[in-house]
Specification:
The structure is a single chain. By secondary structure, this protein is mainly α. The chain has 2 domains: 1-76; 95-161. The chain has helices at residues 4-94, 102-118, 135-157. The mean pLDDT is 84.
């Protein structure tokens, strides 16, 4: 069997092994702790990035809401402008023989509205290019016709026609 020196040496090695095992266990525990801290830090970074995304989406949503309100306001403003235009054209038409008639103004205005939307992603329906007119074009045409008819009426009433 072994001598006393061998036994002493074996005890010493066992003692060193126990110490080293304790140190290894301590190092492994430190590694686990560091890994946990890294995972926590990465999770915190991920949470912060996610919160930043939510804040950005919230900012964009606020902007979308403002755009939508602006569009609504502008549409209502354009409707009010149209009603004012329609009233004035109707007033002029009434004093010049009833042309253009109110239903003609409204029908042509609908085509003008469709024409305006045809140039956007909000295209409502297709109009042939020859049917596409802006409100400004329609008003100019109507006013020109009214003036022409008024000139003819004036000439006839002066006895020159």
């Amino acid at each position: 069997m072994g001598s006393a020196d061998d036994r002493a040496r074996l005890d010493h090695l066992n003692q060193e092994g126990a110490i080293l095992a304790g140190e290894i266990e301590s190092i492994e525990a430190a590694i686990v702790t560091v890994k946990i801290k890294i995972a926590d830090a990465e999770a915190a970074v991920e949470r912060e990035a996610e919160q930043e995304k939510r804040r950005e989406i919230s900012r964009v949503a606020d902007e979308v809401h403002l755009h939508a309100e602006t569009i609504d306001a502008l549409w209502w403003q354009s409707i009010a402008e149209f009603l004012e235009l329609q009233t004035k054209l109707h007033k002029i038409a009434q004093s010049s023989g009833g042309r253009p008639a109110l239903h003609v103004i409204q029908s042509a205005s609908r085509r003008a509205l469709i024409s305006a939307f045809n140039r956007t992603p909000l295209q409502v329906e297709q109009l042939a290019p020859s049917e596409r007119r802006s409100m400004a074009d329609l008003a100019a045409s109507w006013l020109h016709n009214i003036e022409t008819n008024a000139d003819r009426t004036t000439v006839k009433s002066n006895g020159k026609g």
